[in-house]
Specification:
Chain B: Belongs to the binding-protein-dependent transport system permease family. Chain B: Pfam families: BPD_transp_1 (PF00528). The complex is a heterodimer of chains A (309) and B (316). Chain A is mainly alpha-helical and 309 residues long. Chain A has a domain at 89-303: MetI-like fold. In chain A, 66% of the residues lie in helices and 0% in strands. Chain A starts with 5 loop residues before the first helix and ends in a 6-residue tail after the last helix. Chain B is mainly α. Chain B has a single domain (77-306), classed as MetI-like (MetI-like fold, Orthogonal Bundle), CATH 1.10.3720.10. Helices cover 72% and strands 1% of the residues of chain B. Chain B is built from 14 helices and two strands. Chain B has helices spanning 2-52, 69-76, 78-109, 116-128, 131-141, 148-155, 170-179, 183-194, 198-206, 211-222, 224-239, 243-249, 266-276, 280-306, and strands at 55-56, 64-65. Chain B has a two-stranded antiparallel ribbon. In chain B, helix 3 packs parallel to helix 7, helix 3 (78-109) crosses helix 13 and helix 8 (183-194) runs antiparallel to helix 11 (224-239). The longest helix of chain B has 51 residues, at 2-52. In chain B, 40% of the residues are buried. Classes of the chains: A mainly alpha (309), B mainly alpha (316). At the A-B interface, helix 1, helix 3, helix 5, helix 6 and helix 7 of A face helix 1, helix 3, helix 4, helix 5 and helix 8 of B.
């Protein structure tokens, strides 16, 4: 195995304490040496075309949600007739504000708990050598393979027993104990950190918790951000659990509420696709807003991986 | 002289042993919370589920033992076979397609320098769309007569299929719906690609390796960890397809539309049995069959992948 901390020196760095340590980085590597524009042009064209494919459905949705019922399928990007009342209709039908708040509360609870707990557990598995480690990590991987369906019914019965079915608690409370996906993902990240970093800190008298808190966590910020965002999103998107646990429409999360709108106005109902479009748009916008902020964080995080903190 | 050396070695060994047990205690401090969660929300429920699968239980009256009846019923229930086949067909369409598309996009992104940030945002945006919203949206886009996709195909002289009603096209249609959200994998692959040291490519180029050779011998091995991760995760989640399919074809007043059976995915059927009809014993048995199927498929993937995956900095 190569002894050099490739993860750190591979990406050119401008400044930061970690880089100063990595003396192998060539001087003046701050600027990425990019190929000239004409060499990148074909790639940019490909990306441009792909972007149209990825963006168009979304633009179509925005457009459809401003159209009158009869125009939804005219596929014009700019509506011929604007109908802003779609949103009033949605607002009128559903408990939209309630659902948005519910989803936000559940999402933050779910993401905060799972990010912290998964990072702690992942570090335990990545850094330490201890009896039973491989067996236990095998178990983590095994639970990742375990379909939610297997535990779904008994877990429901547990929440039923403690009288919390019909509340939002079952939607997030399990996250307190970490989640196999994120433990796996974060462990991969921790493993990619050069071991020398930790050994140097140990020599300097850093405690185990200090290794985690002062070294691993700051370096893992981009990975933690990804976990947090993934979970906010997973929580915001989750349809199955709200279907199982929530009956009271005022407790619905956004996807459950949206599903009820689709059921009422869609195929089985009155084919008010413009209302469904508007509701879908409302359900999506908070995620886009969060992404607008988180994206910057991710870009910064990934671009500075191993160089900040 | 020799005695001194062995004594010193012994002291060193003792010290190392002390360090080790301290390390072990700390380790369990870190992973302890997961162990608790595992016992309460995974292992316990697994055992309960296994027990329930041999009972008749409707969550109201207490369960009574029915032996293997649930499992026998499963094999004579035509809907189980249908749901299993649907699910496998969908996974076989979706997972490879998603990996190829995502890797291709990530590799192109990796070539354009700073512009990649913008495009990555664009590719990731659909991932932010909630599945229920995406399901509703694609129900409209894939509409056989009026949908955007078929209208566009019509422009180039192709008569598009009825994606949402033709039983043969429901699963490809769903795969398309899901492919729209491939941006998450793109982000993972791009991050992995950026970790690949550039000097490897330079050295390979100097040795006369062509683009394909560099891809095969450098890119693929260096990002094999990410590929492996996504393969496993995507397969497992594809086999548990629920949200989009349920949004588009089930629930509410549309209790049985014509294309229902083509979109009857395994978890949907399990959900109907468990929480619709309250056949919780039967649903538990169904869940165990799904588990076994997923285990077999994952085991094969792990076994095959093991030879190709390469980690930097792993200590063992």
């Amino acid at each position: 195995m190569a002894a050099s901390p490739a993860g750190l020196t591979a990406t050119p760095a401008a400044e930061g304490p970690a880089t100063r340590k990595a003396r192998t980085a060539p001087p003046g590597a701050g600027r990425r040496d990019r190929p000239p524009v004409w060499k990148r042009a074909p790639y940019l064209v490909v990306l441009g075309l792909a972007s149209v494919l990825f963006t168009y459905p979304f633009l179509w949705l925005i457009s459809a949600s401003f159209k009158p019922r009869t125009d939804v399928f005219d596929n014009a990007l700019i509506p011929h007739h604007w109908r802003f009342a779609n949103f009033a209709d949605v607002w009128h039908y559903g408990n939209m504000v309630n659902w948005l708040i519910n989803s936000a509360v559940v999402g933050v609870a779910a993401a905060t708990t799972v990010t912290i707990s998964s990072a702690v557990v992942a570090f335990g598995f990545a850094y330490f050598r201890f009896p039973g480690r491989n067996i236990l990590f095998g178990l983590v991987l095994a639970t990742m393979m375990l379909p939610q369906a297997v535990t779904m019914i008994p877990v429901y019965l547990i929440w039923n027993k403690v009288g919390l079915t019909g509340t939002q608690v079952p939607l997030w409370a399990q996250n307190i104990f970490g989640s196999a996906f994120y433990i796996f993902l974060l462990r991969q990240f921790f493993l990619s950190l050069p071991r020398e970093l930790f050994e140097a800190a140990r020599v300097d008298g850093c405690s185990f918790f200090g290794l985690f808190w002062r070294i691993a966590l700051p370096l893992a910020r981009p990975a933690l951000a990804i976990v947090f965002i993934f979970e906010i999103q997973a929580s915001w998107n989750d349809l199955l659990k709200p279907l199982i646990y929530l009956q009271n429409t005022s407790l619905f999360t956004m996807p459950r509420g949206l599903k009820s709108i689709i059921d009422t106005f869609g195929n089985g109902g009155e084919h008010h696709w413009e209302i469904i479009s508007a509701a879908s748009l409302i359900a999506t916008i908070p995620m886009i807003v969060i992404f607008a902020f988180a994206q910057r964080h991710i870009i910064e995080g990934i671009a500075t991986t191993g160089r900040k903190g | 002289m020799a005695a001194v050396t062995t004594a010193a070695t012994r002291v060193r060994q003792k010290k190392r042993k002390g360090t080790r047990s301290r390390e072990a205690r700390a380790a369990y401090g870190f992973i302890g919370i997961w162990i608790v969660g595992f016992l309460v929300f995974t292992l316990g429920p697994m055992i309960a589920s296994l027990v329930l699968s041999f009972t008749d239980y409707n969550a109201i009256s207490s369960p009574h033992n029915v032996g293997w009846a649930n499992y026998r019923q499963m094999f004579s229930d035509p809907k189980v076979g249908k749901a299993l086949a649907n699910t496998l067909v969908y996974a076989v369409i979706y997972v490879p397609a998603a990996m190829v598309v995502a890797l291709a996009l990530a590799m192109v992104l990796n070539r354009v320098g700073r512009a990649s940030g913008f495009f990555r945002t664009v590719f990731y945006l659909p991932v932010m769309t909630p599945p229920v919203a995406a399901g509703a949206l694609f129900l409209l886009l894939l509409n056989g007569n009026q949908g955007l996709l078929n209208r566009t195909l019509h422009l180039v002289g192709i008569n598009g299929p009825n994606w949402t009603t033709d039983t043969a096209w429901v699963k490809p249609g769903l795969a398309l719906t899901m492919l729209w959200g491939v941006g998450g994998m793109v982000v993972i692959y791009l991050a992995a690609l950026r970790q690949v040291p550039k000097d490897l490519y330079e050295a390979a180029s100097l040795d006369g390796a062509g683009a394909w050779m560099r891809f095969r011998k450098i890119t693929l091995p260096m990002i094999s960890g990410a590929l492996f991760f996504t393969l496993i995760v995507q397969t497992i989640s594809a086999l548990q397809m629920f949200d989009q399919a349920y949004t588009m074809f089930f629930g509410g007043q549309q209790n049985s539309t014509y294309s229902n059976d083509a979109a009857l995915f395994y978890v949907i059927y399990l959900f109907q049995q468990g929480f619709g009809f309250l056949h919780m014993g039967y649903a538990s048995a169904l869940a165990w069959l799904l588990f076994i199927v997923i285990m077999i498929i994952t085991a094969i993937q792990v076994r095959v992948s093991r030879r190709f995956v390469y980690y930097e900095g792993e200590r063992d």
